Amino acid sequence: MSFNLDNLLRDNIKKLVPYSSARDEFKGEASVLLDANENAFGSPLDHHYNRYPDPLQHQVKEKLATIKGVPADHIFLGNGSDEAIDILYRAFCKPGVDNVILVPPTYGMYEVSANINDVQIRKVNLTADYQLDLDGIAEALDMHTKMIFICSPNNPTGNSIDRKDIETILTHFKGLVVIDEAYINFSKQRSFTQELTEYPNLVILQTLSKAWGLAALRLGMAFASKAIIQVFNKIKPPYNINQATQDLVLKALENVDTVNSWIQQTVAERELLIQELSAIAQIAHITPSDANFILAKLEEPRELYNFLVNQGIIVRDRSKVELCEGCLRITVGTTEDNRKLIEAIKQFYS
């Protein structure tokens, strides 16, 4: 049985007539806009924000298409990747009936969004080396399993998931396989975006919050088949990406060289940070990382976390997360940030 998108969609979504906004109903340029009940006199700002934004963000998508090598009609833009995650649940999972597979430890919003949408979660823990348990996933599947979420590079562990294992799932699972590549810019692994034509059940999530340094703008991306993107656009709010964000993102996307330089610096600092931390006797293990953070297993994690907070240094305590016992997740900072961190940890353990 081959992948069939229509079989996955909820019946109410198939029948849904999406809201048609004023800006959806004409194409081209106009000099007199009297269709959307806007304030014709402008806005009390230097830049005029009195007009509704492009509901499908065409300019931003065209620019992203040239950077990502993905056609614009295969791109969805959301209010962070969280919006895309929520839409996936609402489009494909019947509340109280369907289920999804999560592979902990992983990004927490997959579970939160499932709970909000009353979708059953089936957890298949990663192996001891933070890779997929393919046999466990196969055993967890049933006729109501609609999606499998895989974060690679994984959060909070930082490692990439074996590509062949992901391809095995894409080939054999007839539901959606959602690969979250929020940290792909820091990895040597290539993105799955180039595999979209090969796997019709593939959805890839990315973000401008990490490598691009635009976390405050809240712009997430989903890449998928044209048919799946049409489902996203059918469900999303009419104007989900505001005009200020679209303007600022377009300006930011002109600076690819700057971002690439930051990525190189981050990776170099990551390796130096790992080297420095590995020399501290109380740090037992650092998971190999393809992200802009590391997961360190160490002595007295909670006490160290509190000590760092008192020093004005904030890391993430993951010591109570299954398979991350005794661990702190540490974002790679600037050279100065990392120096202060190392000095504080050495002071704590001295």
Give the structure's gist in a few sentences.
Helix content is 36%, strand content 15%. The chain is α/β, with parallel strands linked by helices. The chain is globular.
What does this structure look like?
With about 350 residues, this protein is of the alpha/beta class. It folds into two domains: about 5-10 and about 55-255, Aspartate Aminotransferase, domain 2 (3-Layer(aba) Sandwich); about 255-350, Aspartate Aminotransferase, domain 1. It has twelve helices and eleven strands. The strands form two sheets. A seven-stranded mixed beta sheet has the order 1-7-6-5-4-2-3, with helices on both faces. Strand 2 (about 100), helix 5 and strand 3 (about 120-125) form a beta-alpha-beta unit. Helix 4 crosses helix 5 (about 110-115). The longest helix is centred in the C-terminal third of the chain and has 23 residues, at about 255-280. It catalyses: L-histidinol phosphate + 2-oxoglutarate = 3-(imidazol-4-yl)-2-oxopropyl phosphate + L-glutamate. Pathway: Lipid metabolism; Amino-acid biosynthesis; L-histidine biosynthesis; L-histidine from 5-phospho-alpha-D-ribose 1-diphosphate: step 7/9. This is Histidinol-phosphate aminotransferase. Keywords: Amino-acid biosynthesis, Aminotransferase, Histidine biosynthesis, Pyridoxal phosphate, Transferase. One of its GO terms (molecular function) is pyridoxal phosphate binding.
